[in-house]
Amino acid sequence: xxxxxxxxxxxxxxxxxxxxxxxxxxxxxxxxxxxxxxxxxxxxxxxxxxxxxxxxxxxxxxxxxxxxxxxxxxxxxxxxxxxxxxxxxxxxxxxxxxxxxxxxxxxxxxxxxxxxxxxxxx
Length: 122
Fold this sequence. Notes:
The protein has four helices and no strands. It is mainly alpha-helical.
Protein backbone atom coordinates (compact mmCIF):
# COMPACT_ATOMS: atom_id res chain seq x y z
CA UNK A 1 0.00 0.00 0.00
CA UNK A 2 1.41 3.38 -0.97
CA UNK A 3 1.60 6.40 1.30
CA UNK A 4 -1.09 8.07 -0.76
CA UNK A 5 -3.45 5.12 -0.27
CA UNK A 6 -2.74 5.07 3.49
CA UNK A 7 -3.50 8.77 3.75
CA UNK A 8 -6.74 8.34 1.81
CA UNK A 9 -7.76 5.40 3.99
CA UNK A 10 -6.93 7.32 7.18
CA UNK A 11 -8.86 10.35 5.93
CA UNK A 12 -11.84 8.15 5.03
CA UNK A 13 -11.78 6.55 8.50
CA UNK A 14 -11.56 9.94 10.19
CA UNK A 15 -14.41 11.36 8.14
CA UNK A 16 -16.56 8.28 8.82
CA UNK A 17 -15.92 8.58 12.55
CA UNK A 18 -16.71 12.30 12.62
CA UNK A 19 -19.90 11.72 10.66
CA UNK A 20 -21.00 8.97 13.04
CA UNK A 21 -20.28 11.20 16.04
CA UNK A 22 -22.20 14.02 14.45
CA UNK A 23 -25.24 11.81 13.94
CA UNK A 24 -25.20 10.31 17.42
CA UNK A 25 -23.82 13.20 19.45
CA UNK A 26 -26.25 15.96 18.53
CA UNK A 27 -29.11 15.41 20.89
CA UNK A 28 -30.64 18.83 21.15
CA UNK A 29 -33.57 19.27 23.46
CA UNK A 30 -36.52 21.51 22.90
CA UNK A 31 -36.27 24.89 24.62
CA UNK A 32 -38.49 25.59 27.62
CA UNK A 33 -42.04 26.74 27.01
CA UNK A 34 -42.08 30.56 26.90
CA UNK A 35 -43.52 32.06 30.08
CA UNK A 36 -46.30 33.80 28.16
CA UNK A 37 -47.47 30.41 26.84
CA UNK A 38 -47.87 28.68 30.21
CA UNK A 39 -51.34 27.63 31.35
CA UNK A 40 -52.72 28.79 34.72
CA UNK A 41 -51.33 25.77 36.64
CA UNK A 42 -47.87 26.14 35.11
CA UNK A 43 -47.90 29.91 35.74
CA UNK A 44 -48.67 29.32 39.41
CA UNK A 45 -45.92 26.68 39.47
CA UNK A 46 -43.53 29.30 38.09
CA UNK A 47 -44.52 31.60 40.96
CA UNK A 48 -43.83 28.78 43.44
CA UNK A 49 -40.48 28.17 41.72
CA UNK A 50 -39.60 31.89 42.00
CA UNK A 51 -40.47 31.92 45.70
CA UNK A 52 -38.92 28.58 46.69
CA UNK A 53 -36.34 27.43 44.15
CA UNK A 54 -34.87 30.33 42.17
CA UNK A 55 -32.32 31.31 44.82
CA UNK A 56 -30.46 28.04 44.21
CA UNK A 57 -31.54 26.69 40.80
CA UNK A 58 -31.66 28.19 37.33
CA UNK A 59 -34.75 27.25 35.39
CA UNK A 60 -34.10 28.69 31.96
CA UNK A 61 -30.35 28.51 31.56
CA UNK A 62 -27.70 25.83 31.91
CA UNK A 63 -25.06 25.57 34.57
CA UNK A 64 -25.28 25.47 38.32
CA UNK A 65 -26.24 28.34 40.60
CA UNK A 66 -25.95 26.90 44.12
CA UNK A 67 -27.68 23.72 42.94
CA UNK A 68 -27.93 22.21 39.45
CA UNK A 69 -29.92 23.86 36.69
CA UNK A 70 -33.47 22.56 36.30
CA UNK A 71 -33.48 23.25 32.56
CA UNK A 72 -34.55 20.09 30.69
CA UNK A 73 -35.08 18.25 33.99
CA UNK A 74 -37.79 15.97 32.57
CA UNK A 75 -36.21 15.74 29.11
CA UNK A 76 -33.42 13.55 30.46
CA UNK A 77 -33.81 10.05 31.88
CA UNK A 78 -32.04 10.93 35.15
CA UNK A 79 -31.68 13.88 37.48
CA UNK A 80 -28.16 15.12 38.32
CA UNK A 81 -28.32 12.92 41.43
CA UNK A 82 -28.71 9.83 39.26
CA UNK A 83 -32.31 9.24 40.37
CA UNK A 84 -34.93 8.79 37.64
CA UNK A 85 -36.40 12.05 36.37
CA UNK A 86 -40.02 11.26 37.18
CA UNK A 87 -42.71 12.98 39.24
CA UNK A 88 -42.28 10.66 42.22
CA UNK A 89 -38.52 11.19 42.55
CA UNK A 90 -38.63 14.93 41.79
CA UNK A 91 -41.39 15.44 44.37
CA UNK A 92 -39.50 13.36 46.96
CA UNK A 93 -36.37 15.45 46.40
CA UNK A 94 -38.31 18.69 46.79
CA UNK A 95 -40.09 17.51 49.95
CA UNK A 96 -37.18 15.72 51.65
CA UNK A 97 -34.21 17.64 50.29
CA UNK A 98 -30.95 16.03 49.27
CA UNK A 99 -27.33 16.74 50.21
CA UNK A 100 -27.10 20.56 50.44
CA UNK A 101 -30.72 21.07 49.40
CA UNK A 102 -32.93 21.62 52.45
CA UNK A 103 -36.39 20.14 52.95
CA UNK A 104 -39.15 22.22 51.44
CA UNK A 105 -41.75 22.72 54.13
CA UNK A 106 -45.08 24.44 53.82
CA UNK A 107 -46.00 23.59 50.23
CA UNK A 108 -49.62 22.60 49.79
CA UNK A 109 -50.43 19.61 47.59
CA UNK A 110 -51.70 22.05 44.95
CA UNK A 111 -48.50 24.13 45.09
CA UNK A 112 -46.47 20.94 44.64
CA UNK A 113 -48.57 19.79 41.69
CA UNK A 114 -48.28 23.24 40.10
CA UNK A 115 -44.51 23.36 40.67
CA UNK A 116 -44.07 19.93 39.07
CA UNK A 117 -46.29 21.03 36.15
CA UNK A 118 -43.99 24.03 35.68
CA UNK A 119 -40.85 21.89 35.86
CA UNK A 120 -42.26 19.80 33.01
CA UNK A 121 -42.20 22.91 30.80
CA UNK A 122 -38.46 23.43 31.18
